[in-house]
Amino acid sequence: MKERPIIFNTEMVKAVLEGRKIQTRRVVRRIKDQEKSYWNIKELILPYPRDGLVWNVRCERGYSGHIKCPYGKVGDRLWVRETWFNFWGGIIYRAADEYASIVDDDPDNTWKPSIHMPRWASRITLKITDIRVERLQEIKYEGMKAEGCLPKNCCGGERETLRKEYWIPLWNSIYKKENTWQDNPWVWVIKFKVI
After folding, report:
1. How far apart are CA 26 and CA 16, in angstroms?
2. How would you write the chain as a 3-class SS string?
3. What topology does CATH give the domain 3-23+74-194?
4. What is the rounded CA–CA span in Å between residue 134 and residue 188?
5. Cα separation values, 23 from 52, 140, 174, Å
6. Residues of the chain with CATH 3.10.400
7. Measured distance between the N- and C-terminal CA atoms of the chain, rounded to whole angstroms
8. For residues 193 and 195, what is the distance between their CA atoms, to the nearest angstrom?
9. pLDDT, tens only, 161-186
């Protein structure tokens, strides 16, 4: 079992803490060959027989190879990096609304970005329970619900409406200009439970 860091924005940290987020999607990055050339992935094929985490890959211009999930395998752990502030020897987390005003109200204080959170400051550890790959636009209602992006009282509805109102704006806000919804990138779908 290995531990690796994973970044969540404040909204998604709240969803994890409330039990609404049990899954995350992360873009499958381009792969690098032995000559250090990068290739965009055109197709990911069924998992390699030896290891459920190795996918056969076909890329542009005929390059092919294998790719592993950089987040680990089933049973591994992810420790969550989130926006934080070191306050008199204690940690204040932006996702903890009752304390966030201490930092927000003081112009001398600034939040520390999640990328700079050390392991000792992390309060959330996740255990990976499943990993698969799919195209981003293949997400269904159950996936949106597991991603924690739907309102708490949402009990279904037209998938396209839910995607347009909740999932697509969230995705595009996280990935900004690269890997937008329209690009339909391959994504790692990582299911987890909080431990």
Report:
1. 16
2. CCEEEEECCHHHHHHHHCCCCCEEEEECCCEECCCCCEECEEEEEEECCCCCCEEEEEEHHHCEEEEECCCCCCCCEEEEECCEEEECCEEEECCCHHHHHHHHCCCCCCCECHHHCCHHHCCCEEEEEEEEEEEHHHCCHHHHHHCCCCCCCCCCCCHHHHHHHHHHHHHHHHHCCCCCHHHCCEEEEEEEEEC
3. Sulfate adenylyltransferase (3.10.400)
4. 7
5. 18, 13, 15
6. 3-23+74-194
7. 14
8. 6
9. 888 888 888 888 888 766 678 888 88
pLDDT of residue 166: 84
Q: Is the dihedral of CA 176, 65, 135, 151 positive or negative?
A: negative
> Does residue 24 contact residue 147 with C-beta atoms inside 8 Å?
yes
**Of 176, 151, 152, nearest in space to 162 by CA:** 151
- What does the block give as tokens for 194? 């909080």
Closest CA to 35 of 65, 58, 57, 55: 65
At residue 7, does pLDDT exceed 90?
Answer: yes
Q: For 52-66, write each residue's pLDDT tens digit.
A: 455 566 656 665 666
Q: What DSSP state is assigned to residue 50?
A: T
Q: Counting every residue, how long is the chain?
A: 195
